[in-house]
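Table S2 (continued). Query chain:
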Amino acid sequence: MITCSAPGKVYLFGEHAVVYGESAICCAVELRTKVHVEKSESIIIESTLGTTGIDHETHPYVSYAIEKMQQLANIEGVRIRIESELPVGSGLGSSAAVTVATIKALDILYECGLSLEDIAGKAHEIERMVQGNASPTDTYVSTMGGVVMIPQRKKLPLIECPIVIGNTNRFSSTKELVGNVAKLRSEFPEIIEPILSDIGQMSLLAEKLVHENDYETIGKLMNVNQGLLDAIGVGSAELSTLVYAARNNGAISAKITGAGGGGCMVALAGKDSTSAIANAIEDAGGEAIITKNTEEGVRLESLNG
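Corresponding output:
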């Protein structure tokens, strides 16, 4: 049995704008999805969502990953078991992580010889098949790890301050939210396009700040980014409650991460404020997760289970 894992991610800047070619800065976090694969008499996919064969409703990402890898290898029967620290539909890149880890595990099991660039590319193709107009950000960061500027695919220094995630535990559909922004952009292009451009400009400004470890200024820009995400309609009352709970208890910054509408927010914390931020998020009705940026992307965990 082959076991591979891939990390989730948080956006510092750029969600939604990156769909339209604007820049984004995204970092892998040490919350991982593990995929166990072994040859079997039939195709079996097991997760907390249930046990199925190829099923594009229950397990769309894994099902498409199997079908894509069948173009490279004779995959007649395989058992795939998924374990994840990433909640589904939370804005933490759960779909990218499971897709990337599945491709990597099948690549090793069937000796396909894929490069990391190949894995990231195939995973992005699968996300587009499922979501429609999906950005390459999540799949690239999950594959490569670290801090990445997209679409430039430029690696930046690691974020060294603690990261606190607040989960509303409210599912959000990336496909639906991306569609809503697209509709708003088509209705009011002269208003929405400059907002998306401004979000992209913040990523370009922040590149230098990441190199300088200037988290205070990064935090100011992240807070502005949050206001612009609210302006394009991807906020929610639950997210705003957690954002302000974090800011009012020592967070350098706090904003939505991912598609919005529910899911998660992310806060950058000072070393002495991490616990206070996490407690404030819990007191405000969210689930707090203290984590950190990680250099490692997709990786082999075990050749024996």
